[in-house]
Design brief:
Blueprint (H helix, E strand, L loop, with lengths): L2 E5 L8 H16 L3 E4 L5 H12 L4 E6 H5 L9 E5 L2 H11 L3 E3 L4 H15 L7 E4 L6 H12 L7 H4 L1 E3 L2 H8 L6
Parallel strand pairs: 1-2, 1-5, 2-3, 3-4, 5-6, 6-7
The structure holds adenosine monophosphate (AMP).
Length: about 180
């Protein structure tokens, strides 16, 4: 696998554990020679992910929109920065550039991006892996919601069968790459 898209908060979160997870994800991607595709921001967890991957010698591709670029909200040190006219065009390029998708903790922007690729996978429009990094139990309530949706007959394939959930970046990437852990 050569490139993975990371969706994650443009904010830092209140607990340093979230920034640490973004750092670790950047380092682990770089260590495996995997290009990190992300939203191109210079704030919050997004910025930390990009900085840590770049510091570790990794390749980071940002995909932003003109409106954010105009507000100077983009990372200036990326390996590549794509500036798209609309949010839809931006998500399409992030999809096209990536072989898998991982959501780290974040807010509604992160959920929206994750659920779009997950929905499209469930509809059979693609078969790229979709994953949630459950740092500090952050995504446990979302898992509960999806379990409820399956129990109540609103999800044909339970999320346990269709997305990958791991607690650390190293475990996540090893599982995505199909490596044994031990
Ligand atoms: P949120 O989780 O609401 O902080 O939104 C983060 C997600 O939405 C990221 O994965 C980005 O792709 C997108 N996003 C939100 N804010 C920005 C920003 N300032 N610059 C670039 N992308 C952003």
């Amino acid at each position: 696998m050569q490139s993975i898209c990371i969706f994650l908060g443009a904010s830092c979160g209140n607990d340093p554990i979230y920034m640490d997870a973004a750092s670790a994800m950047g380092r682990e991607l770089a260590a495996r020679g995997i290009t990190c595709v992300y939203g191109g921001s210079c704030t919050g967890l997004m910025n930390r992910l990009a900085d840590s991957a770049l510091e570790a010698g990794g390749r980071v591709v940002g995909v932003t929109v003109q409106a954010l670029k105009d507000k100077e909200e983009f990372h200036r040190g990326l390996s590549e920065l794509h500036v798209m006219p609309t949010m839809h065009a931006r998500k399409k390029l992030m999809f096209d550039l990536s072989e898998a998708f991982i959501a780290l903790p974040g807010g509604i922007g992160t959920y929206e991006e994750f659920f779009e690729v997950y929905t499209h996978r469930q509809m059979g429009l693609h078969s790229k892996p979709c994953a949630l990094l459950n740092v500090n139990g952050f995504y446990s309530p979302m898992e509960l919601m999806m379990r409820k949706a399956a129990q109540e007959g609103f999800m044909k394939t339970p999320h346990e069968e269709s997305i990958l959930i791991a607690e650390t970046p190293a475990e996540m990437l090893d599982r995505l790459l199909g490596l044994p852990r031990g």
